[in-house]
Amino acid sequence: MQTSLPSSSVRPLLLYAAACISGLGLARPAFAQELLPNGLPVAAKTFELPEVEAPERHAVREIGQSPFYYRIPDTTVAAWSRSAIGAQVTLPTNEEEDAFARATEGGRFSFDLLGGVELSFDRREPFSVVAELGYSYVYERSHWFVVGLGPGLHGVGPTSEPEDPRPSGDFGVALVPHAVVGSLDGHFAYGARSSLLMRWEVFGMELAHQVAYVEDLDRTVHELHLMFSPTYSGDL
User: Fold this and answer.
1) Other CB atoms within 10 A of residue 150 CB
2) Strand partners, 83
3) Residues 83-113: pLDDT tens digits?
4) 80: number of CA atoms within 13 Å, CB side?
5) Helix/strand/coil (H, E, C) string of the chain?
6) Which residue from 81, 107, 100, 50 is spatially nearest to 230, judged by alpha carbons?
7) What is the rounded end-to-end Cα distance, in angstroms, of the chain?
8) Which region among 33-47, 58-72, 171-185, 187-201 has the lowest average model confidence (pLDDT)?
9) How far, CA to CA in Å, does 172 sit from each of 197, 207, 208?
10) Domains of the chain (ranges, CATH numbers)
11) How confident is the model at residue 125, as a pLDDT?
12) Gap between the Cα atoms of 123 and 72, Å rounded
């Protein structure tokens, strides 16, 4: 035999249960939080960090030579060449009655073709040793084989590359004594030529005094050698 509850006692329970169910559906729990797109909850309290300011930039200048400086060998050899045109003038002598002296006086066209090397022992200094050899021709008068060695300066003057530790100016100068061997008016001769060489960029100039001894005639001939080089390549 089953017992049943009176309807008056069941109705309050049903009403209470319905109220609880409707409250769960409509009311939002206090602990519910918004979710980020990745599914993580948004923090209830956010933390704001102060904006970080970038430090002021300072230009740092290296003390001493640049790394490029240490890749330059202490002993530097530079090759160069010069072709020159100009005049060679035979100076008058006191031997007015000598036919050879009268025939060789005056100036004539001259052409030089020389090459050489410049040896620098310290990459920081402009001092160097200049060596050259080549051929010198005087129109209808002489042929000379020329070889010389002397001191020089290179990279002198203003420079467009102030950071380059090497002397890098556009001007160079050298004082080179030469030995000359060849023929003068068909006679074997030998002597010396003292040259002042100057160069600016690709242009060069030579001012020299030459003394030659003609053994067959027992004569000494003094000459001035003035040359201009429009095509100077390499370093001096």
Assistant:
1) 17
2) 113, 231
3) 899 999 888 766 545 555 555 567 889 999 9
4) 25
5) CCCCCCHHHHHHHHHHHHHHHHHHHHCCCCCCCCECCCCCECCCCCCCCCCCCCCCCCCCCCCCCCHHHHHCCCCEEEEEEEEEEEEEEECCCCCCCCHHHHHHCEEEEEEEEEEEEEEECCCCCCEEEEEEEEEEEECCCEEEEEEEEEEEEEEECCCCCCCCCCCCCCEEEEEEEEEEEEEECCEEEEEEEEEEEEEECCEEEEEEEEEEEECCCCEEEEEEEEEEEEEEEECC
6) 81
7) 133
8) 33-47
9) 8, 14, 17
10) 67-234 (2.40.160)
11) 77
12) 7
Q: Which two tokens stand for residue 160?
A: 């467009």
Q: Position of tokens 């970080």?
A: 52
What is the distance between the alpha carbons of residues 85 and 88, in angstroms, rounded to a whole number? 10
Instruction: Kindly state the tokens that stand for 122.
Output: 């310290």
Cα dihedral 226, 146, 215, 141 sign: negative
Kindly give, in sequence order, each residue whose CB lies less than 8 Å from that of residue 111, ignoring residues fewer than 6 positions away. Answer: 83, 84, 85, 136, 137
| Residue 209 CA neighbour count, 13 Å, CB half | 2
How big is the chain, counted in residues?
Answer: 236
C-alpha distances (whole Å) from 236 to each of 78, 103, 158 are 8, 37, 16
Which residues are 227's β-sheet partners? 86, 206
